[in-house]
Amino acid sequence: MNPYDFDYLRKLLKDRSGLVLSAEKQYLAESRLLPLARRHGLSTLAELVGRLKTELATSQIVTEVVEAMTTNETFFFRDKLPFEHVRETIMPALIAARAREKRIRIWCTAAASGQEPYSIAMILKEMERELTGYRVDILATDLSTEMLDRAKAGIYSQFEVQRGLPIHLLVKYFEKAGEAWQIAPALRTMVQFRSLNLLNDFTPLGMFDLVFCRNVLIYFDQETKTGVFNRIARQMTDDSFLILGAAETVVGLTDAFKPVMDKRGLYAPNLAARQAARLGPAAPIVRYAAKG
Questions:
Q1: DSSP 24
Q2: Which of 125, 97, 98 is CA-nearest to residue 191?
Q3: pTM of the full predicted structure?
Q4: Does 242 have pLDDT greater than 80?
């Protein structure tokens, strides 16, 4: 791939998905996109770029290129600590705070093949007694329609269920499906999957009490991260929670959130910043000279 074609792909990916592909990642683009090109009857990446340029506005191939370059690494109960926060800190707080309306809304912003939202669903199932009378909605979104189709089916290989999933939960919430395992219908119905580009407006999604935004913004530049954080903040209630990945932070990016003390990776809305935003800039002080 010549440098001009690679630069075109880099700009396309950033504009369409927010993904920033560094200059040294040309090998990654070649390894992921050449099989896609061949599926479309194109023998080289130069031909693929030519197709993108001529059919940019309408071609499904643009979507396929973006999805091919998206990293979808995930597994059940990934990193453990965030799910401990859910069990021990977040859900008890939300159950108490929502005692009147008895409704809690959770959003997984980058669901990939579904392991994260289904991990949350298993936690909620284990807390059924505490959640008696509550309605808990889980919305799981992702850019990749291919990943969302996998997530909706809820079918995972032996390797996938061995990554992070405790054996007692496998036995309790999965059924054998040939050589694979399928998550139980009761858990599949707990999660609504929806296609979403994190560069788009979140307003139609409504308000949330807990947002998982883990291991996705690491691929974005600083300006894009700030925009995503600020738009997420507008969809969160005052007493809600945000969970980021182990290598992610809001520090230096936005004042919309503040860390929760002694809870690594857990954040809450910064109410002072939120109130200041609601009030807008302070009115100028007008001084009048005394009349003689």
A1: G
A2: 125
A3: 0.84
A4: yes
Residue whose token pair is 């999965």: 174
Domains and CATH numbers, the chain: 3-69 (1.10.155.10), 81-274 (3.40.50.150)
Alpha-carbon distances of 247 from 176, 215, 244, 250, rounded to whole Å? 35, 8, 8, 11
pLDDT (tens digit per residue) in 259-279: 999 999 999 999 888 777 665
If pLDDT is split at 50, 70 and 90, which confidence band does 57 have?
Answer: low
Strand order in the sheet with 135-142: 191-195, 135-142, 103-108, 208-213, 236-244, 266-269, 257-259
- Nearest alpha carbon to residue 181 among 200, 199, 165: 165
Residue 11 one-letter amino acid = K
Residue 18, amino acid: G
Q: Which residues, listed in sequence order, are joined to residue 105 by a DSSP beta bridge?
A: 137
Residues 6+ apart with CB under 8 A from 80: 164
14: helix, strand or coil: helix
Q: Give 260-285 as a 3 state SS string.
A: CCCCCCEEEECHHHHHHHHHCCCCCC
Average pLDDT score over the chain: 89
Query: What average pLDDT score do residues 63-75 get?
Result: 82
- The CA distances from residue 166 to 73, 117, 123, 172, 175, in Å, are 19, 16, 12, 10, 15
> Could you tell me the two tokens for 122?
């298993």
pLDDT of residue 52: 86
